[in-house]
User: Fold CPAF-like PDZ domain-containing protein from Linnemannia schmuckeri.
Amino acid sequence: MIPLRSLILSASIAALAVFSNAVPTPTEFASIEPTPTAGHEPTSTATTEPNPGNPATPTDTCGLLSSINPTELKYQHVVDCYNAIPFDSAQATTTLATVLTLFKDYYVFTDAALARTAPEPFANAPYDIVGELERIGRSKYTSDYKFHRDILAAVTGLGDGHAAYSISCYESFFFTQDLSLYAPVVDGEQSVRVYLDSAKRGYEDCIVETINGENALSYLQAYARDIYGTSHDPNARLNFMLASQTYDTASGLFTDTPGDFSQRSTVPQGPYLDYRLKCANSTDTVKLREEWRILPQIETAFTDAASYVANVCIAPPEVVAPPAEGGLLRRRDEPVRRITKRAKPEPTPPSTGPQFPSADLLVIGNATIFYHLKDQPTIGVLVCHTFLPSDVEAEKNVILAGLTAFHVHNVTNILVDFQGNTGGSIDLSSFLVQMLFPNKGPLDAAFPSDMRVSKPMQELAKLSYNNSDYGYFNARDFINLSNGTAVYENNDLFDKPVTLNRNGRRNLWTEKTSLNFPPVAAKYMTAVASFPWTAKAENIRILTDGRCGSACGMASYFWTALHNVPAYAIGGTHGEDLSMFSFAGASVLKLSELQGFYKSANLTSPLTDLPYKNTITFSWLEMYGHGRTTPLEYDAELYRPKHRLGFTPENARSREVMWKEVAATAWK
Ligand SMILES: *[C@@H]1O[C@H](CO)[C@@H](O)[C@H](O)[C@H]1NC(C)=O
Ligand SMILES: *[C@@H]1O[C@H](CO)[C@@H](O)[C@H](O)[C@H]1NC(C)=O
Ligand SMILES: *[C@@H]1O[C@H](CO)[C@@H](O)[C@H](O)[C@H]1NC(C)=O
Ligand SMILES: *[C@@H]1O[C@H](CO)[C@@H](O)[C@H](O)[C@H]1NC(C)=O
Ligand SMILES: *[C@@H]1O[C@H](CO)[C@@H](O)[C@H](O)[C@H]1NC(C)=O
Ligand SMILES: *[C@@H]1O[C@H](CO)[C@@H](O)[C@H](O)[C@H]1NC(C)=O
Ligand SMILES: *[C@@H]1O[C@H](CO)[C@@H](O)[C@H](O)[C@H]1NC(C)=O
Assistant:
């Protein structure tokens, strides 16, 4: 297999990109599952007679998959191998037990998810993750693939971008379309159009009238509503699914990315998509049947289903790593979602000059970039495309240098572009918040928070209290909100939980607390005090497409809800609301990290390690808006932007055009 690591944006990411949210549901798969060669019953094909005379002849569908030149791989090759993985009931029982315990006793939104249907911009109905998983436990499976797919669908149903169930076994091949799509508004009308045709047939901006015979916009909206996860807002989901420009740190350019509809880690419904296009140069329509192309994401060798299971699926022996150094706040909180580059990586056109002729690049960091608009010299654009730079402290200095450069250039108004920022360090997020709105009180940029409490978690917390190496359930890292800004000086936070009834379920919770953010150093606060925009909402705007998650959502919340900064939300469905941010209300942990905490404390975790290699993530600490009673994750009102914008063929392909458009309406 040819490793396609280069397809993955960030070098720091392991070989497998997590596309955790382009998730199949049982309904989507019901029709495709039985294939002509490998039926629902995996064993029938997994045991095709080997050919002893010719060792090069593959022995089963996984052998076939490994023997084919990657460029000739088809949808069916992958599906047939996945279907050939034998169902192992012991493995399934362990897996389900662990996932069930995780979502019952550790996941922080299990009860909140049962809430009544939320107001706009959300559209989440009450969701019972425990019930869904128990239903899987009662179902009879013969297909390992279907079993894992059903768990994935159950987790995806939460609509929480922090909750992911990713099993290497079934996400080792990506599926990609040559056409990537977007939904611009032209003359007040929204239609789906081709954003990019990577097969270079020139279909860009042809209107996509239908997908699989259905109205294209309705088709995508249904996919956003029923299949895709990541957010409680179906219009934010739509933006995640569609093509967009994303900042690429390697090239230093905004590059086209296909979106999660046109590039997936999970198996699509069928081997191709049918499109009917209407192009400007012709009255005829163009009918296209576009097969999914396959992008292998693994370099592991295998020769048949058995070795695929052994080498690709099964977890290697666990290496017990101590928890991230430096404690919770300095942890580089990985966003759950990953964005991969365009399927057929074309070399980015050699940059023959600045990407944006009328925006001067002033300062460039690894998470933030500072542009100055030439035609509107009072306006600076602060692009913050991630909160996950390699060095958070270094990036803080970049931010100071960028703001200082704005000041030197006589900038008075700042547009913060948060599009495509799916989070990272909450320390950096809190820092950025305070660089524009310095704290008046020490906890201004902190969230009231709480955690689920269970017996095994209390055991861990008790040991953690005297040893910070045991992970994040350590009372010393949390502020006693009844005692100023002091942290707990005993373990009562976890030892004396309160019982809360949420949506009919009673569970133990910590009292409200807050993470202990270090104060921003004086050198920063002194510098920003002289900037003309500091603490002035009228001089600051946010631009977002809802693809602003986790730490990005947290910063957006503070600026919009507490400081009244107006936000412009772009994309989604014309005429409908759109969230400013997604999955903002929690902190995320990996199952493997939680297991690591237990191991380092020499405690037996109530969760058995999964037999399969996995990336399972969950929200463990929930946050609240100041003075709010619903967790921020579910507090729909706080997600509504003041202003809406639509994509156009021009602004979707040039941030410069988009910035000027916002600037023109924001500061007349
Ligand atoms: C219209 O443009 C498309 C894409 O460039 C091209 O493939 C097609 O041949 C053109 N049709 C006509 C009638 O010019
Ligand atoms: C940005 O990343 C590059 C490459 O990893 C590194 O050399 C540089 O020091 C980083 N800059 C900052 C400000 O962290
Ligand atoms: C900023 O404004 C000052 C005072 O008007 C002026 O002297 C200076 O040249 C301006 N700087 C830039 C970079 O335009
Ligand atoms: C932590 O250590 C101190 C001193 O040994 C001890 O008094 C205290 O009970 C310990 N706390 C917990 C929660 O175990
Ligand atoms: C928190 O602080 C309050 C006020 O000082 C105090 O009464 C309470 O015992 C503290 N809680 C814990 C768990 O230490
Ligand atoms: C409250 O915080 C102070 C430090 O600010 C500490 O000395 C005191 O013990 C704390 N009180 C309680 C009850 O935790
Ligand atoms: C955990 O167990 C190992 C092996 O038994 C031992 O070396 C280590 O000191 C123990 N650690 C703690 C924190 O008890």
Notes: Residues 89-106 form the longest helix (18 residues). Residues 365-366, 389-391, 394-395, 398 surround 2-acetamido-2-deoxy-beta-D-glucopyranose (ligand 2) (CB under 6 Å). The chain has 19 helices and 28 strands. The chain has a mean pLDDT of 88.
